[in-house]
Amino acid sequence: MNLKILFSLLLVFIGAVSKAQDDPQIDLKIGFSFYKNISRNEFNKMPNLNMEVNYFISRYLKSGLYLGASYLTNWKMTRDSVYKVYESSGGSLAVYYGANINFSLLKILTKTDNLKLDCYALARIGGRYIFAPEDLLVSGNDFIWGSGLGISYQFNKKIGAFVESIYGNNYFGRGSYYSFKEKIDFKYGIVLKY
What we know:
- The protein is mainly beta and about 190 residues long.
- It is about 10% helix and about 60% strand.
- It is built from two helices and eight strands.
- The protein has helices at about 1-20, 105-110; strands at about 25-40, 40-55, 60-80, 85-105, 115-130, 140-155, 160-170, 185-194.
- Strand 1 (about 25-40) and strand 2 form a beta hairpin.
- The chain is elongated.
């Protein structure tokens, strides 16, 4: 199953690259965020390191692949005579992967391509694999998605910074209810353009 998802995402990226303009431009985003991790029914945050490679398809649109990793506290559930009991079992590695698309909102309003400031809408789809035995609270493969808004600022032609606000399911509580606010994550990082 994981191989099929990865192959499908690779086909999406190759299709986007093959339809791109004659003067290609690639950007590399290296980011950091804090995803929610559920621990004894109280939210705490865990760091997530991630990287995106995007290819400019047109003046307004870029698409690419992303990869990220987190280390989360995982729990083993056991039962005593009446209650569920959760015991800490250490940590588990979570790897994120998928495809994303960014649509520049600011370039629609302006006639110039060399903006230092950009505002964009984004969407992503992919998966998360948690390396853990099946008897732990979270393990295996999950489908994840997200959409949101981002702002980037280019210091020069090659280096910039970005902030993104993403609504989606990057949290780890399976079967739990989360409010709208709890499903929003922020991502910060640098942009390198080639």
